[in-house]
Design goal:
Number of domains: 1
Strand content: under 5%
Distance between the termini: 55 Å
Strand order of the largest sheet: 1-4
Radius of gyration: 19 Å
CATH architecture: Orthogonal Bundle
CATH class: Mainly Alpha
Number of helices: 11
Structural class: mainly alpha
Order of helices and strands: HHHHEEEHHHHEHHH
Helix content: over 70%
Number of strands: 4
């Protein structure tokens, strides 16, 4: 049953990557920018939830909602202060700004909360569900369920709501969308808000499964989630979901069957191979630029 256990754990970890990757892919798909500070928003959300539960002794659901609220505001502020002035700037300037914002959030967290690791409280307790010889924790089940629900909700939102259609229009052509009466600035801000709220949920789920919290907590998961978004086809919601799940499964199997130290190298090697065969990702579409 080792194979099944690895598979379940891989899907659970991949679900976290997928939730983070959904934030990446939405921002890139609509604003055409890579928000490398996204991983650090995960860390902020986890800290907010930690202090709400530990310091104020409030129920975990309140901590999750508080984390989502704070990260939503933080995402909008980051977009308005750091990215909005660079809408017409070269992509390299946006990339450098995103990396700078990432380091700013990490260092601000160290100054505010210190760099000492904290033990994240067990939100779902030690409850497990036994299916014959296999035991699955409640944290794992909630993580997988949350990922599926979020993916379906986002697909429905972007396909059927007025704001979702505005996002798709901005993704296709911001100039044409503006001529049609769509407020591009508001649409991009809403995109950052949704992505940051998802980052908060991912941060809580990640720290529930791996209960160590520090200012660099979101760095590597953020990079791997970006890898998952590229793997699945950045700009595609189903692609981010698929890429995250596959990345988590590959990582867990690599750790269990090959080497813990080599697992990250194996994950990125698989990404390179996939992109060599299919440069747009598994579900991405190759877009030809008119000259």
């Amino acid at each position: 049953m080792t194979f099944v256990t690895y598979l379940i754990n891989g899907i659970s970890l991949g679900s976290v990557y997928a939730i983070i990757a959904l934030g990446y892919t939405m921002v890139y798909g609509i604003a055409k920018m890579l928000n490398f500070a996204h991983g650090d928003v995960i860390m902020v959300g986890a800290y907010i939830c930690f202090f709400v539960i530990n310091s104020y002794h409030l129920p975990p659901i309140v901590g999750v909602l508080a984390a989502m609220a704070v990260c939503t505001v933080l995402g909008v502020v980051i977009e308005r202060l750091a990215y909005k002035p660079l809408r017409q700037a070269p992509s390299l300037a946006v990339l450098i700004t995103a990396i700078g914002m990432s380091y700013f959030l990490q260092n601000a967290a160290q100054l505010r909360w210190s760099s000492n690791p904290k033990v994240f409280p067990s939100i779902f307790g030690n409850v497990s569900l036994s299916l014959g010889p296999i035991s699955v924790s409640l944290t794992t089940l909630v993580t997988i369920a949350a990922c599926v629900v979020i993916m379906i909700a986002l697909t429905t939102f972007t396909g059927q709501t007025k704001m979702g259609k505005a996002m798709r229009a901005c993704s296709e052509d911001k100039g044409a969308a503006q001529l049609m009466g769509i407020n591009v600035n508001t649409t991009i801000s809403v995109t950052f808000a949704i992505g940051s709220a998802l980052a908060a949920i991912a941060g809580v789920l990640l720290c529930s499964a791996y209960p160590t919290l520090q200012p660099t907590t979101g760095s590597m998961p953020g990079i791997k989630a970006f890898t998952a978004a590229v793997f699945g086809g950045i700009g595609s919601i189903p692609g981010a979901f698929l890429g995250g799940i596959l990345l988590g499964i590959i990582e867990i199997f690599a750790k269990g069957l090959i080497s813990t130290q080599m697992s990250d190298a194996i994950v990125f090697a698989v990404l390179i191979i996939v992109l060599l065969v299919k440069p747009a990702g598994l579900l991405g579409k190759q877009i030809r630029e008119k000259v």
